[in-house]
Design a protein that fits this description.
heterodimer; A: 343 residues; five-stranded parallel beta sheet; two-stranded antiparallel ribbon; 7 strands; 35% helix; globular; B: 118 residues; alpha+beta; five-stranded antiparallel beta sheet; 3 helices; elongated
Chain lengths: 343, 118
């Protein structure tokens, strides 16, 4: 694949017709809540955009975010878009290791300085001089500080990068911090940042944000926590398939009891959906198939800041009834479509 | 529903003035089942009912108002994943696309070459 190939060229080489691409763009633009002129412009802009350089840094993480993005059941336009990106450094996925891999990272930074997309998953340890996590003799903070300087935009993928996640849970031995906290403290340069939280995030949300940036050169509209409003504007509860049971006051008393199996609300079993903003109920998982509540398990609230400590200390555990009142979503319709799989 | 019809009329007026196509994302609108029924009844059915097979099926129907199209996108499990009203002469989804035609011409040349060898 040549560096100057456009996405249209690449998709055509992989048997995706222009009509399929137009359909993908219409549905992705709808999921991003783009106004009509932007919807019409998206196919043109995305199709003719050159391949963006992406540097992906993984710090204190479990690799679940990368798994989420790369483990589709079938080939999707999203996965093809990911393949189309010039993924210049990703130490989990790349074949190179050691000195060769780090040289590739340095070369990619120098070659695309000021233009590359920096994706970060995992939190950054700051205690004990950052010794809790190092790569090639560099602390995570040193590597992040170096890479951020030349980034056009940073995507904090997953709750760990966005808010500190599990490594930051009490007592936070490594002094884990999020990318945003480090920017706010001046420990790293400040560049445009978008948080895509979730443990892991919904893959269509990650690619939707990247597609928006590639097409328009800007980030989609963000909320106060720097999340894309189109995907995180509603609570999981707002669009839950068990929502009508909640409205009628029908609650399951135990997992898999008669009520749970007949669609009763899982609130009393600890569901955190009413205070969790995420796209699980609208985009769903596994190419639009389902979300945990379809399988009889409540939401853990994994896309919210401090979700672990909040559940353990405030709610008395993940399986205790939620203490907080439901949060208010944006009130828009719940029928946001998922992106279609290739057939 | 009334405001939607006014919006469609405005999009038609814009197309006639400038040739600029317009679209409305139906699934972003909080339409009740009754309102949706009223909208489809008011627009009526037109002369074209086309099926497209690309990333799952799509249905492209001209409504009873010429140039106003109702487009429904389905996934491979036949679930609706997108629904739009488009105001234009011919929706882009129906037109053969230049890039696909270029690749098609290459395939046709290959077949002609193959036949020439026989």
């Amino acid at each position: 694949m040549r560096q100057d190939d456009t996405l249209t060229d690449y998709l055509a080489q992989h048997g995706v017709s222009r009509r399929s691409f137009l359909k993908f763009c219409a549905i992705t633009a709808s999921a991003l809540a783009l106004p009509a002129p932007a919807r019409n412009a998206m196919a043109q802009a995305l199709g003719s955009a050159p391949r963006p350089s992406v540097i992906w840094l993984s710090f204190q993480e479990c690799t679940g975010c990368t798994e989420s993005l790369t483990r589709s059941f079938d080939t999707t336009v999203e996965s093809l878009i990911l393949n189309h990106l010039s993924l210049d450094y990703h130490h989990t996925l790349q074949a190179a290791a050691g000195t060769a891999a780090e040289a590739a990272r340095a070369a990619a930074i120098a070659r695309n300085f000021g233009r590359y997309v920096l994706v970060v998953d995992g939190s950054i340890p700051t205690n004990d001089g950052g010794a809790w996590s190092t790569i090639a003799g560099m602390t995570n903070l040193q590597m992040l500080a170096e890479a951020v300087q030349g980034a056009a935009v940073v995507l904090s993928v997953g709750t760990c990068a966005a808010y500190g996640g599990l490594p930051k849970a009490n007592p936070n031995p490594s002094g884990a911090m999020s990318v945003e906290e480090l920017m706010d403290q001046g420990a790293i340069a400040s560049v445009p940042l978008v948080n895509v939280p979730g443990c892991p995030p919904v893959p269509e949300v990650i690619t939707g944000v990247i597609a928006h940036y590639v097409a328009f050169g800007t980030l989609p509209e963000l909320d106060g926590l720097r999340r894309p409003r189109a995907y995180y504007g509603k609570t999981v509860h707002d669009c839950c398939p068990r929502r009508s049971a909640y409205d009628r006051g029908i609650f399951a008393r135990a997992f898999d009891d008669e009520l749970a199996r007949s669609g009763a609300c899982l609130l009393e079993l600890g569901c955190k959906g009413p205070v969790t903003f995420n796209a699980c109920a609208t985009v769903r998982w596994n190419m639009g198939t389902s979300l945990p509540m379809h399988s009889g398990h409540g939401c853990l609230g994994c896309s919210e800041p401090h979700f672990w400590d909040r559940a353990v200390t405030r709610d008395g555990g993940f399986y205790q009834p939620l203490q907080a009142p439901p949060a208010t979503g944006d009130g828009t319709a719940c029928t946001v479509p998922a992106a279609p799989p290739l057939t | 529903v009334l405001s939607l019809l006014h919006e469609i009329a405005a999009l038609m007026g814009r197309w006639m003035e400038s040739g600029e196509a317009g679209s409305i994302d139906i699934r972003r609108l909080p339409l009740s089942r009754a309102e949706r029924g009223a909208l489809t009844a008011l627009l009526g059915a037109g002369e074209v009912d086309a099926r497209v097979d690309a990333l799952g099926k799509s249905r492209v129907c001209e409504t009873g108002i010429p140039g106003v199209w109702w487009i429904t996108h389905l996934d491979s499990a036949s679930e609706v994943i997108g629904e739009f009203i488009e105001v234009t002469q011919t929706p882009e989804l129906l037109s053969a696309q230049r890039q696909d035609m270029i690749l098609g011409l290459e395939r046709l040349h290959d077949r002609l070459q193959l036949m020439g060898r026989r």
